[in-house]
Each structure stands twice: as structure tokens, then as C-alpha cells.
Amino acid sequence: MVARGRSAVGPQLVIVISVCAIAANDAWHFGMHETTSTTTTALVGKTVVKHELGTNGKMSAYGFATAAGQQKAAPSLTTSTQLQRGAADASLVTRTTRLKFNSKFAEVMYAALALMAN
After folding, report:
1. Is the pTM of this model over 0.70?
2. Which of 17, 42, 43, 104 has the highest CB neighbour count under 10 A?
3. pLDDT tens, 87-117?
């Protein structure tokens, strides 16, 4: 006679597949793509002050003057800042990379997951 009991393999398999799917989504951002926007700001004068942030110096903040007044480029993981030196006109080029949804369906699915998480 075969013993009737529940197998523990089914729930364990579901948990393993779920964890792998979450890790893959975190690494490859399923349903999303990267978009990059670039802005160029003309600087008044040629004085740019660089401030090192943190202990390892990997992040920096730049202080500069534009026509609108004193500005500071805030450090960010999605923004890269490049100074154009040696040119007749000093400028600051800022590139910002963000994730956008591929479709309305992906946007709705991510919104539904956010609602279930709360």
C-alpha cells in the first residue's frame, strides 16, 4: 500500500523558482529599458570647484556658477557629470540614466506588485 502524504518537494521548488525570478528581475530589469537624457549648461567664468565626497573619493560634487546664479551638481548613481575644459566656452555636460517601462502592461504589473507589497 502507498502511504498518502504530502510531498515537500512542491513548495520547496516554488520557493527556489521564486527566489531565482526575483534575483533575475533585479539584475536584468524585466519589462524595462534604460533611457539617457543629456543637458549642457554654459558656465559663467571658468571657476569650477570639485569637492570629494566619502572616504574613498569615488563620488564628487562640483560647485560652479551659471547665468542663473551659484549651482551645485548633486552626486547621484544615475547621473554622470563631465566638465569640458580647455574650450573657449566652459560648459557642464550632465547625463542622467533612468529606467522606463517597455509597455503599459509592464507598468500595470509593477504597480500591482507594489500594491500587494503594502
Report:
1. no
2. 43
3. 667 677 888 889 999 999 988 888 887 888 7
